[in-house]
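Q: what sequence does this backbone want?
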């Protein structure tokens, strides 16, 4: 079968790889129908993250179960499924707590495991990892594309909102206009936020944030954006959703947080350790910093219910669709910021 393989910064190739097969009795093999390229894939694509030549890529799998090991109970061949970016057993202390990204037996797609940017994957710990999509969604491409972001970006945006303590009637600030930031806007609205202030570097993406329910848009030109937010909120917001993970966006989140406020942060930190975190700002503001890798698996059932009910649709985050052969072009388009997020229909 064919899959995307990393060969060095800027060099993703589609090539023949061994067909996945059941290795452990808890495995399933999933034939991929939909996957995507994630903003976080750009870190290794740009050489900003250690990644070995020959490693597979992609961590957002959706498809059809082809085979299951003899201990798998929750899915069967033919089932339509999706999976979060984290693999989890569903049974350990942390999985039972809803913190599947800390699963004692967990793992993450790609690297030395199969990557979702390919024709099929071996899915370890299938009972914990795979989530069935109701049969009536089959063939409904619009619905499938609305469900698909639950594999990562929608659950991650939701985690930012939950971690920041967003609830009915609050004012919140979303830092970042990437796919996660846009999903965080959706999530904050879904949780009842009254005012959602979106801060970003791209006017076209901020327009998308507006379509997702942002009430105020702040175009960050390098300076002044934080002051603008502090002024419009008369002192900052109680709930700040940091959706990038860069030192600058963490700094922005701390600046626009109201004393006593909470920052939900979900972007993998890059350069934050090197450039420093404003711990004095956190300290003197009595700010709470909460978050981490989103336990997307824990959020899937509730978010799926809303997508199926037609009240949640994150699919507009995709602005480019490619087939498997188009994956290298998809990376390039995202790297050059010609695309916000690329959907891959395998
Ligand atoms: Zn676990």
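A:
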């Amino acid at each position: 079968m064919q899959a995307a393989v990393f060969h060095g910064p800027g060099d993703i190739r589609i090539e023949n790889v061994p067909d996945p097969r059941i290795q452990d009795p808890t495995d399933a093999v999933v034939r991929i129908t939909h996957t995507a390229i994630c903003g976080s894939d750009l870190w290794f694509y740009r050489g900003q993250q250690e990644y070995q030549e020959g490693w597979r890529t992609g961590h957002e799998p959706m498809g059809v179960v082809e085979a299951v090991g003899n201990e798998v109970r929750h899915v069967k061949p033919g089932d339509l499924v999706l999976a979060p970016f984290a693999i989890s057993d569903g049974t350990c202390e942390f999985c039972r707590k809803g913190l599947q990204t800390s699963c004692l037996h967990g793992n993450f797609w790609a690297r030395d495991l199969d990557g979702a940017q390919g024709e099929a994957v071996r899915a370890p710990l299938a009972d914990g990892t795979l989530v069935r999509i109701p049969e009536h969604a089959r063939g409904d491409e619009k619905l499938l594309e609305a469900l698909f972001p639950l594999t990562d970006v929608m659950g991650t945006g939701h985690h930012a909102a939950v971690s920041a303590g967003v609830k009915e009637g609050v004012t919140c600030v979303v830092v970042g206009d990437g796919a996660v930031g846009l999903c965080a806007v959706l999530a904050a609205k879904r949780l009842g936020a009254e005012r959602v202030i979106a801060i970003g570097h791209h006017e076209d993406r901020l327009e998308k944030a507006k379509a997702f329910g942002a009430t105020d848009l702040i175009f960050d030109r390098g300076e002044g954006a934080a002051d603008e937010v502090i002024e419009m909120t008369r002192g900052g917001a109680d709930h700040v959703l940091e959706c990038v993970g860069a030192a600058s966006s963490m700094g922005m989140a701390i600046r626009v947080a109201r004393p006593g406020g909470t920052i939900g942060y979900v972007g993998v930190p890059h350069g934050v350790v090197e450039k420093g975190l404003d711990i004095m700002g956190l300290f003197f503001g009595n700010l709470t910093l909460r978050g981490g890798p989103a336990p997307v698996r824990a959020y899937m059932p509730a978010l799926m219910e809303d997508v199926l009910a037609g009240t949640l649709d994150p699919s507009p985050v995709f602005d480019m669709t490619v087939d498997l052969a188009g994956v290298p072009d998809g990376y390039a388009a995202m790297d050059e910021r010609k695309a916000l997020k690329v959907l891959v229909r395998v």
